[in-house]
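Objective 1b. Sequence-to-structure analysis of Porphobilinogen deaminase.
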Amino acid sequence: MTPPLRLGTRGSKLAMAQSRGVAEALTAATGRAVNLVEITTYGDVSNEPLATIGGTGVFVNALREALLDDRVDLAVHSLKDLPTTPAENLTVAAIPERADPRDVLCARDDLTLAELPPGSTIGTGSPRRAAQLRALGLELEVVPVRGNVDTRMAKVTSGELDGIVLARAGLSRLGRLDAVTEVLDPLQMLPAPGQGALAVECRTADEELVGTLAVLDDPMTRAAVTAERTLLAVLEAGCSAPVGAYAVVAEGDAPQSDELYIRGAVVSSDGAISIRKSVTGPVEEAEQLGRTLAGDLLDDGAGTVVGAELKVPKKENVS
Ligand SMILES: NCc1[nH]cc(CCC(=O)O)c1CC(=O)O
């Protein structure tokens, strides 16, 4: 009998929910048993600002060490927290079909952004969300927050904040979509590159497992996030950068005629400069489309925005 696969996961409710989902899908598709192995990361036990302890990389790195030390066989990451440079000796063997990548507002009294009075406080630790909120010109006051999804939502329930902006995908996995008061239109709030998608990683040398995990891969999601992450990489911006991207694949009628449509935004932290562009092209050219979009944004001055943001001290690293 083949032994159960060991799936490394962080212990947070969100991480456990998405790891359980991947484990179940894997067992359903292959018949292999999967055991979850909880890996505690420094980022989980420390209350220090993420930026001072290495950004969201601290979550990813502990799981990667567990893979390289052969303590686990596979690991599940939120793709938007994964650095764009690939890890040596590890392979992202599957990117499953992604959840709705949009951001949402959870506000008091069932209010939407437009209904919140001037001066309302909106919590987010993400420079991308903060910049796009400020660009709306609604006199909203952006307040930095950290902590897991429950901790952040409690700040609205307690009245400490008027609202918070979160990823719809996270709330969906936690069964908390009831708290959503507005799904934010990407026209105003472009999500983080890779948002809503998961990455299933294993050792490259585990060739058989690389092949097995491929059953979970969704080529359309992979193409979309490849374009989004290439944009991020070309702009040399990390997960804390004020960069939004959202790609979708539209199935064409003829074989090989699927089209990828990607939108990107670079927004200065005060919201004064907001550069938005989009490109369309064959899905096979996902990487090139991300590159082209980055070039178009840079032509319009994105370099000064991203460059200026990088010079200020790094903010909390929660995209
Ligand atoms: N930045 C933290 C983070 N990383 C992944 C998710 C869940 C959504 C996803 O998988 O993209 C969240 C929470 C959030 O942004 O609200």
